[in-house]
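Protein 1 of 2
SEQ + STRUCT:
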Amino acid sequence: MIGKNLSHAFAGLDFLPAQVCTLRDGTVLIADVYRPHGDGPWPVLLMRQPYGRDIASTVVYAHPTWWVRQGFMVVIQDVRGRGDSEGEFYPFRNEIDDGHDTVMWAASLPGSNGRVGMYGFSYQGSTQLLAALARPPPLRALAPHMTAFDLYSGWFYRDGLLQLSTTMAWANQMLREDARRLGAEESYAALEASYRNLAALTAQFPLRDAKPLTHADLPSYAADWLRHPTPETYWPEFNLLDRVAELGVPMFHLSGWYDFYLRGSVDGYRAMASRHPHQYLLAGPWVHLPWGNLVGGQDLGPAAVPTVDAAMAGWFHHWLDHDTPTLPAPLAGTRYFMLGENAWRDAPSWPPPAATTQTWFLQSEGRANSRFGDGRLSRDVATGPEDLFSYDPEVPVGSPGIGFGPHDLTAQQQGINLLVYTTAPRDEPLRVAGDPSCTLHVRSSASSTAFVVRLSRVTVADRAVFLCLGAVTAEVADGGVITVTLDPIAVTLAPGECLRLDIASSAFPLLVRHPNCGTDPASLASPADFRRALQIVYHDEARPSQLHLPVLPA
């Protein structure tokens, strides 16, 4: 942590390290306080985070000293059981009461004007939402970025499929610090090794007992996440979508088209905007971190360079400088980045009200396997015999790159273990903005299985640039209709480009491999318990499988 020897190192401001906040149960939390010289009063910006307060999320935000020079007092606190703070860390569980007590303490600091805003992304976004549930009166505005209001559906699971790589990697990262604090030397060494070998960590059987995440000398939260695959148990306390009525403060939401928690953050914005005024969404082209114009090997242009700090500074001053801010607020509605155009657009809400649903039908002559097949997307009608592919969990279709991003899927799309449907090259631009979805008529030889749908933009250079993904579990041994909702996206296809839809049953290791049986994937004892499945997609006149696109007018 930053030591006291730096307490006078920053020009034009005061740095007060290791300030003590005592919670209602006597637990002591430690924070660093940055403030301008003088007596104030200043509005307070609070960040509560579990990664070491000296980092202060500077992987994406300006250092606290910059915020001080914009006229704020800044408080960066280690949450319970992290950094120098006392107590035991269990993610999310203690942040309601701890957040309330910290907000009250921060509002009372010398120089505070009594009004507090909170900012931060990922876990730091969750600490804001959970603190707001307790309704501390000084808390006037939040900036919950790249987080999820419902941890089950927006963070850890996607329609019952564990978000495997992100969950395992983050659990390993968090438990490593717990092992260090607890003096669990063997577990710490094992966590160090597994942190450097994610492939081995995600390939264990059964996943619910994955080592070293479930070692007996470590906290239980990783095991809890892996052992609760349905939303009915364990997860309700972490579902804030059901409690948005209690979160009535202005919020500056931020999501990234290629963030793992995109669905969770956009769902939260929409739920809040339906109940409360003064909700703003900035939807950028970014991955979880860092934010910038170079994403997935592509340069998205100068407009993709983030200006989040400056926008937040003006927004927080509006809500925190005065007890009754003058309306209208400086930011409202939605500002979103249009891929393809690589430019920003504005709308009063998300999805943009101007978008209308355009239906595209799946077509083929019965061999849509791979990009070399005959699968087509057409505005006309669904035609042709059924398409089939074999899903073998031991030979899964991979994730779109190491992480989300505009990666080229062309190599993956030459496999015959997925179906590929492509439009004709565009004669004029096609502008998509919203939440695409598919209605698929399917059947499987398995009693229970999964379907994964992806959209990509095929450039004139024949690169299939990943856009978005959706997945569902299904029991369709006797045939049935499934709806797959894909993540939000905004993209313009230029003349000469195509839109491509591919259908598989896996995206490993992003998603856990469905075993093609009713067994929870995390409980599977060994790869020998995997079952192969023949997957059928129909697109005839009686069973018209379709892609529904939210399209903006020309």
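Protein 2 of 2
SEQ + STRUCT:
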Amino acid sequence: MRKLFVLVIAALVSTALLIPSATSRTQQESTREYVVVYEKGVSLATARAAVERIGGTIVKENRKVGVATVRTSNDEFVADAVAQRALFGAASNRPVGAVGPLEKKKFSEERLDAERRASIRGSVQAATATGGAGESGEFETFAPLQWDMQMIGATKHESHDVHPGDPGVRVGILDTGIDGSHPDIAPNFDPALSRNFTTDIETIVTVPCEDDPDELCEVPLDGPCADEPDNSCSDPADVDENGHGTHVAGTVGAAVNGLGIAGVAPEVTLINIRAGQDSGFFFLQPSVDALTYAADIGVDIVNMSYFIDPWLFNCRNNPADSPEAQAEQRTIIAATQRALSYAHRNGVTLIAGAGNGHENFDRKDEIVDETSPDFPPGTAYPREITENCLDLPTEGRNVISVTAVGPSTRKAYYSDYGRGHAAVSAPGGDFRDYPGTPRFQMPENLVLSAYPENVAREFGEIDENGDPTTPFVLKDCEDESNPDTCAYWTYFQGTSMASPHAVGVAALIVSEHGRRDQGDGGLELDPNRTERLLTRSASEHACPQPRLFSYEDSELPEDFDAFCAGGLERNGFYGHGIVDAYAAVLRDR
């Protein structure tokens, strides 16, 4: 399942999530919520009147891009919206871009069983104690385990020594939130500008009951709000109750403070622009609102490590889809493209993970999407994909798509790819890298970054004494005798982890080449120039020989084999190359 662009190898959790309580189907469907896109050039008054005419009530409106959230009891609302000349269309406002159906906070791919986790614990602890394979004398405790930063020259003696980033550069993390109290995040976190565009949803009535298909059952989504650390469904903007967003933020800009790790750009400003639910689901409206907000407050770069929409690919007129489904997908494409264009016009460099489906985007005609729509569960059906189908936001306008590589620099087995899809590549981790060696299937082949303590505790990844119970979570303390000074870091893998490396390098480029923004006092650089400098400074990597790369020695099935098209300057595995922080800050000096 390719949702949030992360493949987390972590403890197995119970799948007994369906704790039904029946609600009548009639009651559930009496009022529904939609995202409506207004036609271009239509006045707000005319569009609003059209919504009212077909039985809709506007509950939220984004005037910048002509998108509104609407409630209605009209069962034919999508079809009626398409028929209105003032409206482009409508889409159900339901969770989109989920980590995995109904699995709160845990990612559905690449988990180890308990026996394998136990067998590797000793070697991981030994590697941490001896400093692993990295250089000695690094300032941060876990710097020797940061093969990712060593690969791209983002270390104490390379890019950090030349330019660690400017606080005037603002990086927006569009994700599940940021733990602003984490000691590696707090020095660079801006709570005043951070926003949360979501509200936790305890349960959602959507799944037909097993014992009575005519009834709908309540299924946990974000979980009981009373059980959350803040006891609220409206989380403050410095909270992450999932862990994904904090990990991404740490890769971009974890501070140099003698604790844990250092990010690619350890002195830039991190802003939480939350668009994802605790459960990892993403709604369309918060995603659009997050992008426009980033533009309005002078954010320089955003990281988007997620998919939007329940459709893996958004197709305007796929014959396998119903007219309503086609209309919804057209609406999602329009809303997303408008928000992306608005952000780009207002100076935001847009960077996203390429995806974790090991698909060749140069040959979309060979892709069969069998997972869409992934919400509600059980509604997916197979669809043959065409070149006109878009994977958003990755394939949106002006978005820099990042593929993932492992420690050996080979394309990570899970990473999507394609000469027309990959702009650059970056370290994302590859648990199956280095086959035939002691490093094969080791956590240190993944990317290490910050992790919220509340999430680690919730899932039993630390015990009552605060000590990790899994080799995928590491602990570091400012004062070993004082547990209040301790914090946690974890290993993830995915193009979710590759994208923030590219974002960090882009932040260094703006720090080095940006001009002072008279509006907010920060720095700014045209996004097109930022992209050019990012791609030109990347380290070129040729396709492997033979070009059809086989993952056979990694115990992967044959359908993971990947064909690399293109030359040294740009190819399907690496794009223009692996991002290079050191080269980026030295360029033109």
